[in-house]
Amino acid sequence: MIKGYNQTSPSLEQDILKKIREIQNRQILLRKLGYGLLSLTSLAGIIMSVMYVIKAMTVSGAFEYIFLAFSDASSLSYWKELLLSIAESFPFFEFSVSLAVVGLFFWSIQRIGRVQNNLIKI
Amino acid sequence: MENPSDSELIFQYLNGTTDAFGVLVNRYTQLVYRFVLKVLNNNNDEAHDVTQETLIKAWKNIKKFDRDKNFKPWIFTIAQRTALDFLRKRKNISFTALDDEKEFSFEQNIPDTEILADEAFERDENVTLIQNAFEKISIESKMIVLLRNGEDMTFEEIAEVLDKPMNTIKSKYRRALSVLKKEIISQSAPKQT
What we know:
CATH superfamily of the largest domain in chain B: RNA polymerase sigma factor, region 2, helix turn helix motif
Largest sheet of chain B: none
Radius of gyration of chain A: 28 Å
Helix content of chain A: over 70%
Order of helices and strands of chain B: HHHHHHHHHH
Helix content of chain B: 55-70%
Structural class of chain B: mainly alpha
Mean pLDDT of chain B: 81
Low-confidence stretches of chain A: none
Number of strands of chain B: 0
Distance between the termini of chain B: 59 Å
CATH topology of the largest domain in chain B: Rna Polymerase Sigma Factor, Chain: A
Mean pLDDT of chain A: 85
CATH class of the largest domain in chain B: Mainly Alpha
Largest sheet of chain A: none
Largest interface: A-B, 23 and 32 residues
Distance between the termini of chain A: 33 Å
Low-confidence stretches of chain B: 99-113
Radius of gyration of chain B: 18 Å
Strand content of chain B: under 5%
Oligomer: heterodimer
Number of domains of chain B: 2
Number of strands of chain A: 0
Strand content of chain A: under 5%
């Protein structure tokens, strides 16, 4: 009686895998929506942060120093001072934020592509 | 590899071989079903649901599985907990009775009960007799007997499944067999006369 084999419906294994597949599909849909939303948000963030960096560089005069370095060959003679001026006026924080947003954008795009790969085959 | 171990299948699944979990499902569905069916007093629909839920829980928690341990006790732990949840919902059993069960020492138990396990359990004509006798023991004792005699698990594995000390499992097993023996004898006595 204890070892007696109680055969279940042959489709039980298929039912289980089908149920897992359904749960996975739901999870995939939610993740895709989440990552899609994140990539769209980060894309908008890229545009805004790049504009912010440009504005910060204009205000701080970093553009002018960079322009000077490339336009005037004589500036090479005082390159140390010029480099220091660029470093001082460069908006590192804004630039870091922009890089982080760009990274977030590519990461979310990559995740959308990878979400599909863990599906159990039936 | 033709017949990979459970641990290898889990490793393969976690590393992207998605078919590997399907192999585990095919390997364990019938075993889990057979166990929960008896725990749930041969209720096919519930056994079906519990088996399905067990395998899905196993899938959801597969990353937490320690691959140095055996998969079988792990999945049976999930199965017994899921079955108990179903029984709680059904409210057919008294869980206080389960908890209040007295602990008997290993030495206190009847030594000849193994004979019962070997002989009586494998006789088809005793099915009803055993089924009735099973109703006289607690759900936990029933699980111990089912895991020991039905799934050929060691006491160590059963202790892992039920999260109890091994000596407790051994004593409960002996006591359950003793109760089953008495029940079967008392039930079959009128037929012999």
